[in-house]
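Re: export button greyed out
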Amino acid sequence: MFTAETVSQAMAQSFVKLKPALMIKNPVMFTVELGTVIMLIVTILSGFTTNESLGSVGYNTVITLLLFVTVLFGNFAEAIAEARGKAQADTLRKTRKETKAKRLNDDGSITETSSSDLKKGDIFLVEEGDVIPADGEIIEGLASIDESAITGESAPVIREAETDHNSVIGGTKVLSDQIKVQVITEPGESFLDKMISLVEGANRQKTPNEIALTILLASFTMVFLIVTITLQPFADYANTPIAIAALISLFVCLIPTTIGGLLSAIGIAGMDRALRANIIAKSGKAVETAGDIDTLLLDKTGTITIGNRKATGFFNLNGKADEEFVRLAVLSSLSDNTPEGKSILKLAKKQNVTVEKNSVGDASFIKFSAETRMSGVDLPDGRKVRKGAWDAIYKWSDNKTDLEKLEEKVKEISNNGGTPLALAVDKKALGVIQLEDIIKPGIQERFARLRKMGVKTVMVTGDNPLTAKYIAEKAGVDDFIAEAKPEDKLEYIKKEQEQGKLVAMMGDGTNDAPALAQADVGVAMNSGTQAAKEASNMVDLDSDPTKLLEVIEIGKQLLITRGNVTTFSIANDVAKYFAIVPALFAASIPGLNAMNIMNLATPESAILSAVIFNAIIIPLLIPLALRGVKYRPVGASTLLTRNLLVYGLGGIIVPFIGIKAIDLLVNSLL
Amino acid sequence: MNTEILGVILIFLLSVALAWPLGKYMVKVFRGDKTWSDFMSPLERLVFKLSGIDPNQPMDWKQNLKALLGINIFFFLFAFIALAFQSLHPFWNPVGIGNWEPTLAFNTAVSFTTNTNLQHYSGETGASYFTQLLVFCWLQFVSAATGIAACALLFQGLKNKTGSNLGNFYNLMMKSCTRILLPLAIVLSLILTINGSTTNFDGLQEVTTLEGETIQVAGGPTAPMVAIKQLGTNGGGYFGPNSTHPFENPNYLTNIAENIAILLIPMALVFAFGFYLNRKKLAMLFFAVMSILFIAFVAISVSEEMNGNPAFTEMGLAANQSNMEGKEVRFGPAASSLWGVSTTATSNGSVNSMHDSHTPLSGGIFLLDMMINAVYGGVGVGFINFFVFVIVAVFIAGQMIGRTPDLLGKKIEAREVKIAALVVILHPLLILVGTALASYGIVQNPEYGWLNNPSFHGFSEMLYENTSAAANNGSGFEGLGDNTQFWNILTGIIMLLGRYLPIIGPLAIVGSLAAKKPVPTTSGSLQLDSPAFGAVLISVILIVAALAFFPALALGPLAEYFTF
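Workaround output, generated via the alternate export path:
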């Protein structure tokens, strides 16, 4: 979890962060720093004068040091979280070391330049074997790219101009072909740079919930400030002089230093966890919001089902797969570049039917298009072969009797979650081709988990309602949008938001951009278009559609860690009171010693033990703060009960044991 | 079982049993549904017509707040003038009682306007019948109605999905008087009169005692004032000794009736919350949380009192006797303890025994009750105070389940937390700073001589006085010479801040929540009506109250207890 380098870096930062201008952002720890300064003055004064309320130099020195260490521990927690985040960001940043760039000038000539000289709008050329010098959008060409430096995925990916996968990342390598790329960001303003600034101190914005919690903690600090200050006249009345060291110790022990010291570390660690999952969040708020997501829009393809639909059967009018029918199916699919089209060729090959494009002579191929939803070929002998969506062929065909014969099969395929394509020659239907989805193994469990978290899952698909319903049921999603057009997503999101729900979705295409912008958490795939990335508030470097589930858990984990450490911190006060209050009055009100239930040796050691416990609990909880409290989807009430027992009850009991143990240790040393 | 304890249980159960239907009825009144009390409406309409107020005009939180504060300023001015110039009115002053010293008039006017009824005067010697009836008795109605109306505004704010209309303060306040407080007060005052409370306008009456001596006995319109004193969690007694006085609380039966009256409306408002928002389960949880604290406090207090004073036992004087010091024989230690806990929990402040003379832990419990100030709490304001604890608890618990917190479908964010935090700070600020000033004053100037008791007990007296003022309770620990300019001004200011800021804050919160988009409840949402949330709520209440006041309690009641 920690390397020697991050630790030493964080230690140095702990001192830098002592600057009051930085400390004031954290009101709880700032008051501890003030207390340290007051104690320092008291210690010096007590060296020159003797006064009952000043106390002894030795004791004052020890308390001053302990308070100072408490502040340092808090700073260290924040610094180590930052250091870890930075280390993570640096490994990503390493990929964008200086490289050569081939800048294309307006006249078409090429200037060799350094990647750091590239400005927004510049166009550069990347050829086989080159490292891409900067983030950009392909404006011309297609290339296979090795993105393993960023994603860790070794299989090369295809990026192509004018598709939804037209983005390239600086630092990745072109394996084949050449592309022209336009730079989309000024140097230093990429998403990664933005993310790094979210982890680093200076620019970090507190999230809304963090601000609210800081206010609550500050108010508790206020209450204890009042308690401590008014205790002085009370003590005067009771003829019980209290040393300033004891009063300040009481104050520091009572204010929520544990959560105060760890609060920003917890926030940074949340961002860091996102980064580790290869998600670049554009704001801390987005990560926090992710924990609140009520509705999740998921694309069927790639998220719920493996890849694309595959052809799994040919059925002619008699329900058989005769060779001529398969051959025509192949012919009609030769110019269909969609994955479905290609899968028809594959299935045919399995059945030993292959047709070369040039073997049919002077045929004119008709490409698949989204409007006609058909592809096909006009053969030299005049036959027009068409293959396409069932309803498209239905419209095109003029012989309804054949169509009626096929209808039963079509229904059967649809009901079983398949997609029927139809094949027709000269407007006469010949049969259907069955396409099927393969649902990802384990996806049902993930959806069940989401349901327990209270998240509604919605499958978005271009399939017809029957097919969509079948897959939705099989995968266990709560709702689906069938025959979805990009606007449908937007509409659905708006409808959900009207009911106050928070919606998350993932997308890549330019036509997803409005929906991504509308969603409360929009995650763009890194392979997606620039428009999609701009519209969303997170970018997933892995372009993995199931990442949304992780994003939600990271958000929840962040809030839970904050809530639990707060509870723990406040619950600790009970034991601290039982340590310090009897000690304060032990001399003048011996009866109150009955409250010394821990049986601490002396008043001095009691106060010392409480202050030591208060300090060391911060570093002890750093691993928890950085790792985060594990989220368990067990239902809200069970989760609350569990966390209450562990962090609430635990928070009451642990310090009793801890303070007693420290007291024993302190006294054996004295 | 001991009949004394049976009596305690009976009073509690009867209060709950009566509070349930009353809660239902109050919701009907708030909503303006048809009820049997509609015969009051011509009277209400007349008053509204005369004052030029449209009772049906919808108002947002700011407008309502302006109405509330405006009318309360008027109450205060009226009371102050009436007290400061008491000798000037010619009637209903048979004994001819004079004008009040200005700081006492200020303190008392504040006290009755704020529903506190801290009494630095003695009723039978200081106040004319006019003052008792038209100032004190009247203010006990309208100050209680102010609290109830504020609570109804809060209910509406929480019920609103969208929209800022909280209802109309004037309308709610009027109806709280005419349809809730007045009918109940009439019933109670009849019970009291039948049992021997005085209801007359005669002056002092000469009575010859059994010993043959002649004494002057003060009478007057006691029963009506006592009735509203209890029902409106006012606590301002007709006589100095409050409900220990035989004319205020003649026998065990009236004691039962009055104790129920203390608890009745505060309890009923918790149920009313459930009926109004149709969240009965949540209301039951709130009621359970309050009742767990209440029953625990009663148990501690009763057992302490019944076990008696260990000092007596040690001296070999009255072994195994309960602590009867400062108590009425006709009520006994158990009923006195229940009353003590009831009156401090609900910010009522009437007493049927001297709280000063309770055992230290019992006295500590009374203090803690007022420090929490939300165990049922004062009429209306008790629930409003409780609501602030709910906000804090929701904020912490919400995070513990991994969601940014929401309350009844509205997100709790920085603004709401800020307001709630201010209200949470206010109570310890008033009590501790007030006590610190008093402690400092008495240490520097021992000649002030407020304290009739030295040491820890003296500290408890000062702590109690400030706590009582901040909680708008009004009871005194007694033993404190409180009619001095210092105490009159100090507690006057504390009462004002302790009354209005905790009303303004929560109304501002619901005002801010009203502007928010509602969020739906899913299985991932925090379930407010679950035992786990109840546990968080109790912890928040105890931790906020106990942690802030622990050192003060340690120096007062706890020190005394352990030193006994």
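The CA atoms of residues 32 and 252 of chain A lie 6 Å apart. The button fix ships in the next patch.
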